[in-house]
Design brief:
With about 140 residues, the chain is mainly β. It has one domain. Strand 3 and strand 4 form a beta hairpin.
């Protein structure tokens, strides 16, 4: 089903990155860079890994926080277990499970990284149809 462009709303997303490298930081919290022999600068890797989120990206999409009887079990999934549905044309967003969504708010940063507690939703499931992707969202607040 195609959604009307006039119903699209401004939102932000951030992709969950499992086992992202942890970079060394100075006393002000800035990443320390090393200069390579060819002159390029690369962040100093501490060798540690942690789960993080990508830099937030603005996008437009159709979101609904009400789930009606008609949407009760599309794709064999009971959507009544979720708090909102996000619809976008297929192939337009790289969202996957555990990605964060900010709706009617903007992302905030904490110590130079995305603050996941500032997000409104987390992507819980990603069923795909012929022309669009319906992201099933769980509320975080």
């Amino acid at each position: 089903m195609r959604r009307q462009v006039r119903n699209q709303q401004r939102m932000w997303y951030s992709i969950f990155e499992k086992n992202a490298p942890v970079y060394a930081k100075d006393k002000d919290g800035n990443i320390i860079y090393d200069t390579m022999p060819d002159g390029t600068k690369v962040p100093r890797d501490t060798g540690k890994k942690k789960d993080t989120y990508s830099e937030p990206v603005e996008f437009l999409g159709n979101i609904t926080s009400t789930i009606g009887e008609a949407d009760a079990k599309p794709f064999g999934v009971d959507v009544s277990d979720y708090d909102a549905l996000l619809y976008v044309p297929k192939g337009t967003l790289p969202l996957k499970e555990f990605s964060l969504i900010w709706y009617q708010s903007e992302p905030t940063m904490k110590n130079g990284e995305v603050d996941p507690h500032s997000a409104n939703y987390k992507v819980a499931r990603v069923p795909v149809s012929l022309n669009e992707v319906k992201y099933l969202l769980k509320g975080l607040t």
